[in-house]
Amino acid sequence: METENGARWLSDEEQRTWRTHLEVSRLLTYQLERDLQPFDLTYNDYEILVNLSEAEDHQMRMSDLARATLQSKSRLSHQITRMENAGLVRRENCESDRRGLFAVLTDFGWETMKRVAPHHVAAVREHFIDLLSADGLMALQEALEPVAKHLRATRGRG
Amino acid sequence: METENGARWLSDEEQRTWRTHLEVSRLLTYQLERDLQPFDLTYNDYEILVNLSEAEDHQMRMSDLARATLQSKSRLSHQITRMENAGLVRRENCESDRRGLFAVLTDFGWETMKRVAPHHVAAVREHFIDLLSADGLMALQEALEPVAKHLRATRGRG
DNA sequence: CGCCATTTATTCAAAATTCAACTTAATTGG
DNA sequence: CCAATTAAGTTGAATTTTGAATAAATGGCG
Lengths: 158, 158
Fold this sequence. Notes:
The structure is a homodimer of 158-residue chains.
Chain A: H1 12-36, H2 43-54, E1 59-61, H3 62-68, H4 73-85, E2 89-93, E3 101-105, H5 107-127, H6 134-154
Antiparallel strand pairs in A: 1-3, 2-3
Chain B binds a DNA duplex (30 and 30 nucleotides) through helix 3 and helix 4.
């Protein structure tokens, strides 16, 4: 089955899988977002807390954090400003490179992370992980890892 | 492995799969968005064109379209206004329910759809479908369908 | 050394999204 | 039949995101 300019359409099976993937992506995002609302965090907030929590000294350069969370520098800059206002992080100068800044987790940010993480993990289980069989989990990883690799490589160029 | 309040952490394997899924979701969205840029369409625009194209008479009630594309009514309303300004769709009154409106694909919208779809499908192949084996495809569908079902059911309450 | 391209990060304005309030029409329950 | 409730959709203001422009510091390299 070909389109006029030579592209192959998706088979029914392919289309079904594609749409399922898309639907899961979106609904899952919304659901996790909702599960964080009681803690006054967006998913974005949470993701930054995770990254900083896992980082050495609970701090990361803005650029690295932007890369890690797949956001533009501009967006991250605004995001950190908001989180700074909320008391979750603070900015700190980098001595070795005076252009640079660190985003640093505050005590309150760290406390928040410890308090919220268990609930978030429970939500990830409830809405995703625990719905997969052991085989399903492995199959998913094996199917998606090459896609991730491709996208990582493609990212930034055309 | 348990958190203090009884939630089970993710195993390494679970965590890896979860993060891979998340990464693929996001990078894929960005990539497809980029592939649509040359046609002056956002992914949102495209999705609406798809829905209307597949609908009877190339038209859909606003509510149904909002549901189908997983957006709020407000967001859809703004979105359709923009697309109306771009000449892709028009609004039309519904006679049987005078509160209601149809979003209708214009000729230009339909032409646009026919022109763009092959490129989009090619992108979906390049960045997703063609990176999966036949087994991978099936495994993905089987793993994700229950998740989709759960999230659909959970949506709106929960 | 001195110049220029690059890297880091912010800022401003424009576009998109959300959120709550509102309008109008249809339904429902006495 | 009417009042109250629900449903469809829009609106406008506030928030968030994007994208281009800017500023400051670094790194090469001739």
